[in-house]
Known about the structure:
By secondary structure, the protein is α/β, with parallel strands linked by helices. The protein has two domains: 5-243 and 456-469, Glycogen Phosphorylase B (Rossmann fold); 250-452, Rossmann fold (3-Layer(aba) Sandwich), CATH 3.40.50.2000. The protein has helices at residues 34-45, 79-98, 109-129, 146-153, 170-173, 179-186, 197-209, 254-263, 283-296, 318-338, 355-364, 379-386, 418-434, 436-452, 455-469; strands spanning 5-13, 16-20, 26-30, 48-53, 64-65, 71-74, 130-139, 158-162, 191-194, 214-216, 225-228, 234-239, 269-276, 304-311, 346-349, 367-370, 394-398, 411-413. GDP-alpha-D-glucose (GDG) binds next to strand 13, strand 14, helix 11 and helix 12.
Amino acid sequence: MSGDNDFVVVANRLPVDLTRNADGSESWTPSPGGLVAALTPVLSANEGCWVGWPGTPDASPEPFHTEDGVLLHPVSLTEADYRDFYEGFSNATLWPLYHDLIVSPVYDRSWWESYRDVNHRFALEVDKVAAEGATVWVQDYQLQLVPGILRQIRPDLTIGFFLHIPFPGPDLFRQLPWREEIVRGLLGADLLGFHLESNAANFLDLLRHVSIPVEGTARTREVQAFATGGDGRRVGVAAYPISIDPSSLGHSDEAAVAQRRGELGDPATVLLGVDRLDYTKGILQRLTAFEELLESGALDAQDVAFVQVATPSRERLEEYRRARSEVEEAVGRINGRFGAIGRPVVHYLHQALPKRELRHYYSAADVMVVTPFKDGMNLVAKEYVACHPDGSGSLVLSEFAGAAQELTQANLCNPFDSESVKAAILQAIQGLAAHPDVMAQRMSVMYEQVTTHDVDAWANAFLSSLRDARR
Ligand code: GDG
């Protein structure tokens, strides 16, 4: 079966929000994020279609066109799919395995069967909408079998795959009971993209380990490495570091910044963390480091405020509940020890803020603290930098975030070592006071990097390699 769309993006989620209307009816409205913004021009220019789950179990809205002419084509997931494919195999098996076992992955055959089944259904939906010879771009760890299934049912397609999270070393990946199927699934693509050369190198090492022929070395934005697919096809492998759409962050001004700082009690220094509440992000560790700095007297609670926005995420999973309760216990303890009536020292929000509100906090923060144990890229770090065109502010960044490869002027730290996190926070605060010119110069270098390597550049680089891959 084939449809009319020459360019198809397949992702776990459709870029839509469910709106409940006053009369009780429901409608779906497009919700543009970075990836959608980057791909909309390509989608609009090519009879584009986005295939994905609308985000609510058991909902099956009709396909519809956005204002830009992009067809949104929903894939329906049941409550059981959501539990086994999404929460189970994707987020309690693959997510911890690919993030280097920060918690132990659970290997459950029924979750795997659901993952296989859902991947199959996604591929069948792509088959319905993709025109003869179309280009299909599959996104992320939830859909690693889709390239292989599509290759079998639609050999006419050009297939790209991009992994948004890290790819682990072969010794970790080999734990996975269904490792051969995942590798076969990925090798159905013509081009495999990772954030970093080291992620791509891990994948190539894995192939060598299982005697799949590989040539060349993984490079950034150029395809210099090839794996061999089951049918002898060459599969390009390269790194494409993702980035942000700076224009999507909107604007802030002095009044908005002054208002936010005023609400915090006008402290000398505002520190900020913004994350999904995920155990990979090191939220507890950064709060503990902050607490130790208060305890030792290196920081004075009168002078500082720490704003932590922790967006709710995967809340039914045990490890996420534990991470949340540990973070909330730490917030309570730190405020109990160092706060005053009407003046907490940690301002904690467990809610998603509108992007424009996030923008004001990014602009208002003197020090952004980004301390994941492992992160494919980390867009928050790049968003903060993009909100400081004047060179103000300072970034504390984990060495284990993909973004650290590009944002080398940040105050880098090892999140496994609390002394290192504390030192980086102090360097950032003291650097702003003692050497503002040096700090501004460092921030400007990072600003230049982020704004010249934006999400458009990322999408164009990947799609240009994908075009070359099938020539
Ligand atoms: C995965 C990989 C990789 C957060 N809180 C709010 C909010 N956000 C937005 C941020 C940012 C995005 O969510 C988070 O992106 P990250 O990259 O930091 O992290 P993950 O969600 O884990 O993303 C990661 C990414 O995919 C892309 O490939 O970089 O490594 O793990 O844009 O601004 N947005 C709003 N309110 C919030 O409260 N509106």
